Amino acid sequence: MRLINTSTLKLEEFGPQNIPPYAILSHRWIEGQEVSFEEMRQSPPRGKSGYAKIKQCCELAKKEGLTFAWGRFHHRGVLNLSKVSIAERMSWASQRQTSREEDMSYSLLGIFRINMNLLYGEGGGEAFRRLQEEIIKTSNDNSIFAWNQIETRSPARLSALATTLSQFAQSSRIPVIPAGPTWPTTLTNEAINVRLVFKEIRGRRYGIIKSDSLHSLWDYAIPLEEISPNTYVRLRGQVLVMKSRRFYDAPAWKVW
């Protein structure tokens, strides 16, 4: 990950295991005034308004005690992260270690294109929950639910959302699972509403995350328990990968 040193205004590169805390420059580029990665690396365009914004961001970050800042640069070539699933992007950081537990989540804001407040002291679990909720608000990719919890010391009943990045360690091959406009996944103060198809597998009930794509080859089944009509909790256990079938029991809205 490349960050701007707030004192030197030079780019510095960090591996996934040692990303420091950083400020985020939230802005929109003005036509013709954008700063490219190549310019920032070789000869900063001091006459552009975009560069002035970067300097101002760095000055504010220094006052807050931050040594680095991040800004989305204009690239001549674009990495299309929309083709990489949420689950796979989570897996990239699943082995990461940070000195501040909240930075496990804060360091991912860039690759998910999320803006949220940095609240040091809230704890790593709360920061990760907020990150996932913000992702759900802006993405229609249901692969965010394709994480595993097989640790026997964990509670039998789990949240719909992962509690740690390590739960995505085995999710590097999960593709984008688009919910689509017909059955969007929505978030409320009490629950997550998601389209599921139910199936009994080996005497256990699973909710199958269905893709709207007719070309999807695989479905992903999550262990569930019904705790009240139309209300389910996730159970400890692995996500099952199944050959996709076009015809299951009638799909329905269910609430986690």
Which helices and strands occur, and which strands form pairs?
Layout: E1 2-5, E2 11-13, E3 23-24, H1 37-42, H2 49-63, E4 68-70, H3 86-92, H4 103-106, H5 109-112, H6 124-138, E5 157-158, E6 186-187, E7 192-201, E8 204-209, E9 218-228, E10 231-235, E11 240-243, E12 252-255
Parallel strand pairs: 3-4
Antiparallel strand pairs: 1-2, 1-4, 5-10, 6-7, 7-8, 7-12, 8-9, 9-10, 9-11
Order of helices and strands: EEEHHEHHHHEEEEEEEE
Share of helical residues: 10-25%
Q: Indicate the structural class.
A: alpha+beta
Largest beta-sheet characterization: 8 strands, antiparallel
Strand segment count: 12
Rg, Cα atoms, Å: 21 Å
Oligomer: single chain
Cα distance, first to last residue? Answer: 35 Å
Number of helices: 6
Shape: elongated
Low-confidence stretches: 74-79, 246-256
Please tell me the total number of domains: 2
Task: Tell me the fraction of residues in β-strands, as a range.
Answer: 15-25%
Give the averaged pLDDT, no decimals.
Answer: 79
